């Protein structure tokens, strides 16, 4: 049996404690550690070297990243270390929801990563548009009952694969490329849209299934 995938799950840990007592990273790590083929550890911005020391990154096959309010607090030195591990060593970078504005994603994709718009409320329908992609393994269309919507245009390079697409109850003209893949030098980059911190989205089984599949893909196991 192959070694377990080593997943470092990072959050700035500003998510509300009443919704995520152990953080979004803690919730994801708990789920990944329940799988037979993944070993997950959590890291956060208040850790030494903001949770991305050389030792931590060298251990990881994939770095999952959730942040919202503190993107700009990530230091140049720590950002450079993340980018180096992706580009040179092939560590995966998996950005979740508001991590579209994470310094790591912006540096790796070399675009602004901005959104057409953002707003609260309503349901989100996530549709599988590439059912044969490894990230869609065992995933069928699903609904997130309450979400914060993002709208196109999403300022990113054309993805090499768009696995998931979202539409929103708030306005039927709104849509978003919700599960997108890129390769950046030696590393794989995955962006997954659901994960707003005021709703328990990271406890929804369909969402966690995509997180698991995306973790394996970004770690080059699928
Ligand atoms: Zn949000």
Walk me through what this model shows:
- The structure is a single chain.
- The strands form two sheets. The protein has a nine-stranded mixed sheet with strand order 2-1-3-4-11-10-9-6-7, with helices on both faces. A two-stranded antiparallel ribbon has the order 5-8.
- The protein has helices at residues 23-33, 54-59, 76-89, 103-109, 205-218, and strands at residues 5-11, 38-44, 62-66, 92-96, 117-120, 124-128, 142-144, 148-151, 161-168, 171-184, 187-192.
- Strand 9 and strand 10 form a beta hairpin.
- The relative contact order is 0.18.
- It has a domain at 5-113 and 178-218: Class I glutamine amidotransferase (GATase) domain (Rossmann fold), CATH 3.40.50.880.
- The protein is α/β, with parallel strands linked by helices and 222 residues long.
- The chain binds zinc ion.
- Zinc ion is lined by residues 97-98, 148, 196.
- Zinc ion binds next to loops.
User: CATH homologous superfamily of the domain at 5-113 and 178-218 - what is it?
Assistant: Class I glutamine amidotransferase (GATase) domain
Q: Give the N-to-C terminal Cα separation.
A: 15 Å
Continuous helix count: 5
By CATH, the topology of the domain at 5-113 and 178-218 is Rossmann fold
Low-confidence stretches: none
Top-tier CATH class of the domain at 5-113 and 178-218? Alpha Beta
Small-molecule components bound:
zinc ion
């Amino acid at each position: 049996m192959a070694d377990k995938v080593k997943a470092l799950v990072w959050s700035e840990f500003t998510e509300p404690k009443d919704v995520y007592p152990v953080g979004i990273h803690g919730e994801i790590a708990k789920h990944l550690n329940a799988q037979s083929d993944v070993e997950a550890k959590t890291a956060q911005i208040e850790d030494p070297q903001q949770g991305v020391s050389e030792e931590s990154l060298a251990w990881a096959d994939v770095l999952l990243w959730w942040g919202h309010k503190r993107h700009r607090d990530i230091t140049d030195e720590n950002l450079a270390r993340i980018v180096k591990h992706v580009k040179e060593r092939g560590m995966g970078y998996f950005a979740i929801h508001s991590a579209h504005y994470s310094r790591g994603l912006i540096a790796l994709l070399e675009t602004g990563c901005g959104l057409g718009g953002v707003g609260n409320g309503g349901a989100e329908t996530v549709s599988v548009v590439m059912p044969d992609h490894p990230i869609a393994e065992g995933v069928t269309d699903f609904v997130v009952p309450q979400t914060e919507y993002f709208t196109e245009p999403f300022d990113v390079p054309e993805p090499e694969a768009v696995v998931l697409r979202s539409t929103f109850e708030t306005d039927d003209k709104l849509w978003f490329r919700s599960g997108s893949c890129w390769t950046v030098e030696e590393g794989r980059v995955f962006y997954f849209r659901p994960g707003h911190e005021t709703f328990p989205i990271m406890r929804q089984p369909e969402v966690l299934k995509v997180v698991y599949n995306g973790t394996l893909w970004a770690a080059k196991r699928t």
